Amino acid sequence: MEYIVSARKYRPGTFSSVEGQENITQTLKNAIKNKQLAHAYLFCGPRGVGKTTCARIFAKTINCENLGPDFEACNECTSCKAFNENRSYNIHELDAASNNSVDDIRLLIDKVRVAPQMGRYSVYIIDEVHMLSSSAFNAFLKTLEEPPVHAIFILATTEKHKILPTILSRCQTFDFNRITVEVASKYLRLVAQKEGVEIEDEALNVIATKADGAMRDALSIFDQIVAFCGRNITYQQVITNLNVLDYDYYIRLVDAFLKEDTTSALLIFNEILNRGFDGSHFISGLSSHLRDLMMCRDPQTVALLEVGSTIKQKYLDQAKNCSNDFLYEALKLCNECEMNYRLARNKRLQVEFTLLSLSRILSEKKKLLN
């Protein structure tokens, strides 16, 4: 059987299977239910969160011949089968990144005038619409404002601020959410079960965090890890493959700061450099670690911690030994180091001086009190 990447194999086919965008999918279903379809929609949001997927599901659903009671496509009728097999004439996709001229838009406008051969609507999905030239946008305005009754436009973009106000005012705008680490981890767990892959929870959290809010990226990273590790995946294998620094390094470092153990702090940093990480990557990770410790100081902000249960407990345990004043000063020093790092001629010394300063926070505070 031909191999299909997970991002395509597990691409949602119904609104209910879209993860992390419940407010948007429910609004679209209500519009279908109440027969209040707009002639133009603008889907905005980061990459890989489901904009084009939702556009395709919407196009399929409004042309479905046997809508279910929950207003989901049946996936059984002639129209749905044509959509699922990529042979439907009711959906037209244009990549505005490579088709951004006035001539391309005029060809699209000519297509819009033709009524669909089957089904009620022709849906035109224009991806990366912010890449259209100004003249192409202007040529598109009249058709976008008053399209034929059978035409619906769905514009998708990652950069809403680049869209002309005259286009924005003609569309219903939907802002897609970034996918949280929790949602991505749960979905990856389902995919792993379907693929017969055993994977540790902490490994899933690392993949979800690395994806940076994009479900497509999370699935691509998952495929990469499976290719590297096989069917049994551990946390250590994932951080090795993705070149991610282990949480344990930062936990050991903060312990060294609290003990004012400058020797251990410098040796740990040297160990990190020997593993191939640069100082900028390290100091950024240390800032994130200190931020997470600060979140653990208040029961109400612990929910903002996007890590697995085992590592969360390690954070909670270490946070008990850190005062808010210590964490504030430590974050301040790390932030200054990040800002000065690029300009520093001796970058290693810049980071090492910061580590020495971090190890002296408590002693400096004692001097002030005395």
UniProtKB/TrEMBL annotation:
E.C. number, please? 2.7.7.7
- The chain positions of domain AAA+ ATPase read 37-180
What would be the name of the gene that encodes this protein? dnaX
Q: What protein family is recorded?
A: Belongs to the DnaX/STICHEL family.
**Any one Gene Ontology molecular-function term assigned to this protein's record:** DNA binding
Q: Which Pfam families does its entry note?
A: DNA_pol3_delta2, DNA_pol3_gamma3, DNAX_ATPase_lid
GO cellular component terms given for this protein? DNA polymerase III complex
Q: Which domain of life is it from?
A: Bacteria
Q: What is this protein called?
A: DNA polymerase III subunit gamma/tau
